[in-house]
Amino acid sequence: MATYLTPALAWRRLREGNERFVSGASSHPNQDASRRSSLVENQHPFAVIFGCSDSRLAAEIIFDLGLGDAFVVRTAGQVIDDAVLGSLEYSVSVLGVPLIVVLGHDRCGAVTATKTAVETGQMPVGFMRSLVERITPSVLTSLRNNQEDVNDMVIENVKQTSQRLVDSSRVISDAVEGGRAAVIGLAYSLADGKADLVSGIGEL
């Protein structure tokens, strides 16, 4: 089963699926009735994808996946909260997923809103404020490094989010240290559909 893939093989499988998507040669695997039937009793996803909620970033489509292939968690700006951590820990400890993917993308609305808030001092209202507060460290780091483009801030946010997962969760850090899992950060291009590796924690 896919569960027994190494982190490196899981990343290779994702990469190959993304290459098919980019070239317009998606094979749409594991989307038929027999696959659906085979998954009724259990699931063995080979990756957990923690990505932005953006409608243009549908994980199963951009990596050419099907039912049971990926455990998917999404929030705007891929912002971490307790529910996200619990979901990711479940995927690693119960489902045995070998690869955690943090997926950001260019022109991210949440990162753009944070950049605007930092520059103007005007925070958004309601719970959107929580999103901005959590992305702010990445925006500030980018500005300190003289990176003022929002897409640089997206990459910084992916890197910081990946590190925060390992720092915040003993379950995840133990799996990484034990070689059972790795955490990678990917930056997705809306224009060409390519997901590029921008960070990695663990053996790949």
TrEMBL record:
SUPFAM superfamilies: beta-carbonic anhydrase, cab. Its EC number is 4.2.1.1. It catalyses: hydrogencarbonate + H(+) = CO2 + H2O. It comes from the Bacteria. Keywords: Lyase, Zinc. CDD domains: beta_CA_cladeC. Belongs to the beta-class carbonic anhydrase family. Catalyzes the reversible hydration of carbon dioxide to form bicarbonate. This is carbonic anhydrase.
